[in-house]
Amino acid sequence: MRAKQDTAWHSRGVEDVLEALEVSDKGLGTEDVKARLERYGPNRLPPPERAGPLKRFLLQFHNVLIYILIAAAVGTAFLQHWVDTGVILGVVLINAVIGFIQEGKAEQALDAIRSMLSPKALVLRDGERHTVPAEDLVPGDIVFLQAGDKVPADLRLLRVHNMRIDEAVLTGESVAVDKQADPVDEDADLGDRASMAFSGTLVAYGQARGVVVGTGAETQIGRISTMLGEVEQLTTPLLRDIAVFGRWLSVAIVLLAGFTFVFGYWFRDYDILETFLAAVSLAVAAIPEGLPAIMTITLAIGVQRMAARNAIIRRLPAVETLGSVTTICSDKTGTLTRNEMTVKSIVTAEDVFEVGGVGYEPHGGFSRDGQDLEPDEHPVLSEALRGILLCNDAEVRQRDGEWRLEGDPTEGALVTAALKGGLDHKETNELYPRDDVIPFESSYKFMATLHHHHEGNHSFVYLKGAPERVLAVCDRERTVDGDREIDNDRWQQQMDEIAAKGQRLLALAVNDVEADKRTLEFPDIEDGGLTMVALCGIIDPPRDEAIESVAECQSAGIVVKMITGDHGVTARAIADNLGIDTAGGVLTGHELEKISDEEMKQTVREVDVFARATPEHKLRLVKAIQANGHVVAMTGDGVNDAPALKRADVGVAMGIKGTEASKEAAEMVLADDNFASIAHAVEEGRTVYDNLRKAILFLLPTNGGQAFTIVAAILLGLTLPLTPVQVLWVNMVTAVTLALALAFEPTEPGVMERPPRPPETPILSGFLIWRVAFVSALLVAGTFGHFLWMEQQGVAVEIARTAAINTLVMGQLFYLFNSRYILEPVFNRAGLFGSRAVLIAIGVLIVLQGLFTYAPPVQFLFGTAALGLEEWGRILAFGVALFVLVELEKAFLKWREVGADR
Ligand code: ATP
């Protein structure tokens, strides 16, 4: 076997390829797979190269501020002020270490999430279909492909049905190419190798089966080194704005520091070194250098929390957008409902049969008017059961005592119904082998299969699909006494009755064709002349948690719209159950097609339920809702949903039943396909945004308080209340560490009771600027006031400074509590004790300040001195006063409804 070399698989015949890869038509056996996996390794591309730890550590120093600090260290060393030099370098180093660790943690969090999205493949092994992680594929594996799949390895196609593949990732060609099983010329270019499906490309249409010829780095995509993914930047538009703001602020601060230096030296006669150091420490104190790191960490923690609640973020900016979502458009089946389908009724031309049992377990019998019966005594029912079993790709199997479904749940429910009727899957398929298929697509809403009797004397087509589609091509109906003209009114009435119970409808029709017919085309169905056999009613109960989440979204000012492929009456019944507004009526896809874009804008304001919708309708709906100024989250799972998902502000794909194509197009993937997870993600998105604001609201005033204390002293020509190294200390222990605690803030109460944030609101709102100025002023007043007062009492300057610093730190400590909620009061149990991170940060800070004040070596380094109880009393009183004042400010703003623009 020579799977590793390029052996021009595309030009070799199917038999030859299978022989070369030593695989039978039953696929590989388990032992063989194991051996090959060992030999070829997992089907995975080597991870993209990342900067090594050393480089990442050194990059922490690549920052203008650090350069200034290093220059200051060199300056002080030159003047032999070794203590200052040591402290400055210590601060630089500790900052770098903290930054390095934080960054590492943030990246780890994201890596863990990426690995949750690993693709799966459907393979044939030991004669059975299995879904396995794509990583476990080995050369020789036989893989099934269908529309929406991402090709999991390089495949030589063995059997192809109308397959088109989008190979843009590989060839740059955006038009999907037709595929075939016949070999092509040996010298064909990559784009012309129609007999191959290449790893990483997307199946746009059709079905096929192929054999793996290359895995991992041995695939075409693996060989193109440039393709090996770029590492995504840990950022979002908001974070970029903040970074830009931070840079401007830094420039302003450096100018201010320069001015202070010039002013202090020339007009206030300070010593040049002291002024220089004061200017440097001013810059360090004022520049919110911790801000970017804290933003990144907040974002990473948000993403991680969302993942823990089953919402996996694929593109980081979505975290922010989620917080301002105003409309969620959701699919019904599986997202709002449980997707555990059970056939409850089967209606034929003359009878209504009830089916017992729940779930995929084939236990339960048939009855009519409450009387149990044997299905094989009812020929039309038997025919219906056979039809729904044959025109079906799902399998229901018992494994470990439990009945499990492989395939689509609607089809699974039909298989189970047939098994309940005593049919055997394998036997039926052998009796009536399938010759061809038109697979189900939500755009045309049916599936058709062509079969012949195994003795070859009889061929027929089964059509199953949405009843309107099926009825439209039927002119006869089957009865016990043979076929007769169809009674459309009766079928229509039966449909309405079943749908009103919220059941999903599916119809089955049959048509006899020439015995030698072996291929099935659309005209075979669309030309009509079929015979209606039965109508099935399938229940799919709403998820309990979806009912709650819909209510939660509505109280959060978010409109929930349901867009479903199901029948209008079914859709309305389910929407009513879920609490989705049906007052505006239910609009069908057919009606949608008749209205103009302008009318559509009006319609989407009134109607919340859309039935019999196709993916194309979804795209139009998103556009219309957006045109009304809404921020839209839209769910989707099929290959054709990709454009709507891309267009939506937050495209949401389904992790379990979603196609790879829809996942690629989406910003977010739901690990559990559950609507509740979207609501959770919105809640977390709002929390992340709140926490980003909280970090800013906390950091800027602490920086402001520190900086203005120094500026005021210099302008007034007074003794500096904080020496430069002391400023560096305060900055390090508070700004960086305390603020970090806010990144871990849990969701504020009432987050889902307020309206969505208008997307254009700037983060630096008037309210924010006010709060920053207000708290900065309080901190300056306390710190400076305490220092001046103590100086006047004639205490040593070391003691006065130590008291001033502790006043500043205490003020920041209390303000950290205030900052936990932006406008809500925190003077309650949850507010004061609700965050472990805050309590830990405060505990650590108290220990550090204790050392700073009392430990002799630290006293020597920073020029501090021990404080007495009396000083601590005043310091504590200031902290409490600041806390109370900020709480009063919040209450006032809330009362006046200022700051509600958050
Ligand atoms: P949603 O968009 O809410 O997930 P859905 O899954 O019901 O809705 P579709 O999958 O487009 O939407 O299904 C629409 C209709 O097509 C169903 O009501 C049913 O009548 C029919 N249908 C669904 N699955 C199949 C299938 N596998 N074979 C034949 N017909 C099907």
Give a summary of the structure in a few sentences.
GO terms for molecular function: ATP binding; ATP hydrolysis activity; metal ion binding; P-type sodium:potassium-exchanging transporter activity. This protein is of the alpha+beta class.
Which short descriptors sum up this protein?
Rossmann fold; ATP binding; 49% helix; alpha+beta; eleven-stranded mixed beta sheet; disordered N terminus; P-type sodium:potassium-exchanging transporter activity; 902 residues; eight-stranded mixed beta sheet; Calcium-transporting ATPase, cytoplasmic transduction domain A; Calcium-transporting ATPase, transmembrane domain; elongated; binds adenosine-5'-triphosphate; 4 domains
Topology:
Elements (H helix, E strand, L loop, with lengths): L13 H7 L9 H11 L12 H7 L4 H15 L3 H33 L5 E6 L2 E6 L8 E5 L7 E13 L1 H4 L5 E2 L17 E2 L4 E13 L5 H4 L13 H31 L4 H15 L4 H18 L2 E3 L3 H6 L4 E4 L11 E6 L4 E4 L10 E3 L2 E3 L5 H12 L4 E5 L2 E5 L2 H12 L4 H7 L2 E5 L7 E7 L6 E7 L1 H6 L1 E6 L2 E4 L2 H13 L3 E10 L8 H5 L3 E10 L4 H12 L3 E5 L4 H11 L7 E3 H6 L2 H10 L2 E3 L3 H13 L4 E5 L5 H6 L2 E5 L5 H6 L2 E3 L4 H42 L7 H20 L22 H27 L4 H23 L9 H5 L2 H19 L1 H7 L6 H28 L6
Parallel strand pairs: 9-23, 9-26, 19-22, 23-25, 24-25, 26-27, 27-28
Antiparallel strand pairs: 1-2, 1-3, 3-7, 4-5, 4-6, 4-7, 8-28, 10-11, 10-22, 11-12, 12-13, 14-15, 16-17, 17-18, 18-21, 19-20, 21-22
The structure holds adenosine-5'-triphosphate (ATP).
Adenosine-5'-triphosphate binds next to helix 13, strand 17, strand 18 and strand 21.
